[in-house]
Amino acid sequence: MRWTRRGRSHLLARSFHPREHRLSPAAPAAGSPPRAPVDLPPAAPPPPPPSRAVRTLLTVGATLVLGVGAGVAPALAAEPATSAAVPAAAVPAAVARPGCDAAALQRTVGADTTITAAASATTPNTATRYCKVDGYVATSGPAGSNHVNFSAALPDRFVGRYLFNGIGGAAGSIPPIDEAQLAAGWAQAGTDAGNQGSVLDYRFAVDRTKALDWASRGVHVTTVATQAVTRAYYGLPTQAGALHRYISGCSGGGRMGLVEASLYPTEYDGVLAGAPGSNSLNILKFGQIVSYLLAHPDAWVSPDQLGQLEKALIAKYDARDGAADGFIRDPGVVDTDFAPYGLFTPAQLDLLRLITGELKVGDRSYPGFSASNVTGWSAFLTGTQPPSTWGTQPPPALILFDTVTRALFGADYDFRTQFDFADPADPQSWATTFDQVFPGQNAAADSYDRFRDAGGKLLIWHGASDNGISVFDTIGLYGKVAAHQHGYADTQRWARLFTVPGLFHCFGGPGAQDTPAQGLAALADWVEHGQVPRTIVVHSAADQPKADFLLCPYPAHPIFLGGADNPRHLNALDAENWRCSA
Q1: Angle in degrees, 0-180, between the axes of helices 252-263 and 218-234, rounded to the nearest 10
Q2: Highest taxon of the source (predicted)?
Q3: CA gap 108, 394 in Å, rounded
Q4: 276/262 Cα distance (integer angstroms)
Q5: Has residue 42 got a pLDDT over 80?
Q6: In the chain, what is the straight-line distance between the N-terminal and C-terminal CA atoms, in Å?
Q7: What is the pLDDT of residues 114-128, one digit of tens each?
């Protein structure tokens, strides 16, 4: 591995996430009175299936127990008040339905789709009864055949909404259902994107058929299959409005939503894309950072040092938004020249410049990471332990760059000895090969025109302190779309971006943790009632000090009403005391 300061390239990264944030119930829509959900007559009970084992999913870092049984669903309680209801007209009277039966549901899908199981089930926490449907779609080409697995959860009480749960990283498993949304009457679906493995391991993509399934085809074909199953199960017609269709995810799950909007613009009415990994150079940025650390282990910065830097940065920049509340709400105000703080060696300062600096590959680029909460860098980018321990404790950035690079150039390829960031040809070859192996990423600004023209709504959210995918990259993408759309005003009619103070990659950090739930509620109101999300209020986690945050649609930003001196002693952690700039 060679590294020289002269000719150093700035390279990019792509999306992944070791754990997907699970949604909590959608907040009731302002001005949208709840309507009773449709209580469908129970289908004939299927034969009793075998019990399901506990399923541990790395993508959420939690264990989901699916209780499976047989029988007719009993009468259920009224729909929880936390669900924004869909107009009754959107759920027509039930017609002949296949019931929760695999053989009957098989007749509702295409020849490439196999329903492997269908059984009545009950969630362990909310006691919600639903039909659990498992299956796969057979794909082929360019290098052979593959099975893209999927699962659908169809609640006995249904409010006309379908939610596809995206999954981050390399996928590798089907994401768990969201019990709260299921209890609120949302049908749900998810896929492993054609890869049965680890969420951080991309070596599966040496099989180019699996690579294509992961990149775009997998979500598409399982969307088609599970929407067909959902319509048939509830007896819904195929015309627009009979089923409100949403896709939501973070990191790679957010990427899935953007890919659907750009390549298959009529498959979803609303896309909720969290911290979307839409720029493949993100992974290359990881490689740039870990390669420098492997070559210069003395440049490693400890978590304690990053903690000292964060305190200094908050002291300097916290009040720039008018409130000294412990949050740098606009990461763009931070000067990333950290030398004046006297905390780091020259080698460490070089590392920090790589983390916060732009990576360039030919005519493409990837921005540096936000420095609004630098303590998050240890967990994702630089490791919580020195590079000498990385043989057993590598940071996610190393695992991702290593396995993606092996997928591109062969299982035996070792970037430590074969990849040279000082040679522009190597990162250029990496970027070109990535686009060939994983087509459909890095969408152009005009790629979303058909989604817009079809009436789709796009709501993007991103942590201002994201330590895995740069918030500045998402801001840049949104800016390019706005430039293509003749400005932010036109773009905001169908697409809006919200940044979340103090939030790390999808979850974690001192900021709000319920953005996916609040974003989904806002998106549903936008799609179904035309209520444009002018602001969104999100909240801290239960185990953190109480704080509410007002999110403003970019490029607007929040302004504290108390002013710098706060003579009225307003609480800066109460969203009521903020407004959005014009």
Answers
A1: 80
A2: Bacteria
A3: 46
A4: 13
A5: no
A6: 50
A7: 999 999 999 998 899
How many other CB atoms sit within 10 Å of the CB of residue 227?
Answer: 22
Q: Is the peptide bond before 176 cis (omega within 30 degrees of 0)?
A: no
DSSP state of 177: P
Quote the pLDDT of residue 304.
98
Question: E strands, 292-387, where?
Answer: 359-361, 364-366
Q: Which amino acid is at 283?
A: I
User: Do the bridges between strand 157-158 and strand 129-140 make them parallel or antiparallel, or are there none, so unpaired?
Assistant: unpaired
Cβ distance 425 to 418 under 8 Å? Answer: no
Q: Where are the alpha helices (DSSP H) in 296-356?
A: 303-317, 346-356
Mapping DSSP to helix (H, G, I), strand (E, B) and coil, where does residue 118 land? strand
Separation between Cα atoms, residue 66 and residue 64, nearest integer Å: 6
Separation of alpha carbons 477 and 261, rounded Å: 14
Classify each residue of 469-482 as buried b or exposed e, where b means 16 or more C-beta atoms within 10 Å of its C-beta: bbbbbbbbbbbebb
Helix (H) or strand (E) holding 512: none
How far apart CA 402 and CA 405 sit, in angstroms, is 5
pLDDT at 67 over 80: no
Find the DSSP H helices in 410-460. 415-418, 425-437, 449-453
Task: Report how far residue 144's alpha carbon sits from residue 208's, in angstroms, rounded to the nearest whole number.
Answer: 8
Residues 6+ apart with CB under 8 A from 44: 99, 101
Query: What is the rounded distance in angstroms from the CA atom of residue 306 to the CA atom of residue 377?
Result: 8
Taking the C-alpha atoms of residue 49 and residue 40, their distance in angstroms, rounded to an integer, is 22
Secondary structure (H, E, C), 446-459: HHHHHHHHCCCEEE
**pLDDT grade, residue 238 (50/70/90)?**
confident
| pTM for the full predicted model | 0.85
Residue 570, classified by CB atoms within 10 Å of its CB into exposed (0-12), middle (13-18) or buried (19+), is middle
Whether residue 521 contacts residue 539, with contact meaning beta carbons closer than 8 Å, is answered with no
Phi, psi values for residue 152, rounded to 5°: -130, 145
Q: Are 249 and 167 in contact (CB under 8 A)?
A: yes
- Structure confidence by residue, pLDDT tens digits, 294-341: 999 999 999 999 999 999 999 999 999 889 999 999 999 999 999 999
Q: Is the dihedral of CA 216, 254, 457, 556 positive or negative?
A: negative
Number of CB atoms found within 10 A of residue 550's CB? 21
CA distance linking residue 358 with residue 285, whole number of Å: 9
Q: Is residue 566 scored above 60 in pLDDT?
A: yes
Per-residue burial over 124-158, b = 16 or more CB atoms within 10 Å of its CB, e = otherwise: eeeebbbbbbbbbbebeeeeeebbbbbbbbbbbbb
Kindly state the tokens that stand for 112: 């490439």
Beta bridge partners of 360: 365
Band (37; pLDDT cuts 50, 70, 90): low
Yes or no: say if 355 and 374 are a contact pair by the CB < 8 Å rule.
no
Q: Alpha-carbon distance 88 to 79, whole Å?
A: 13
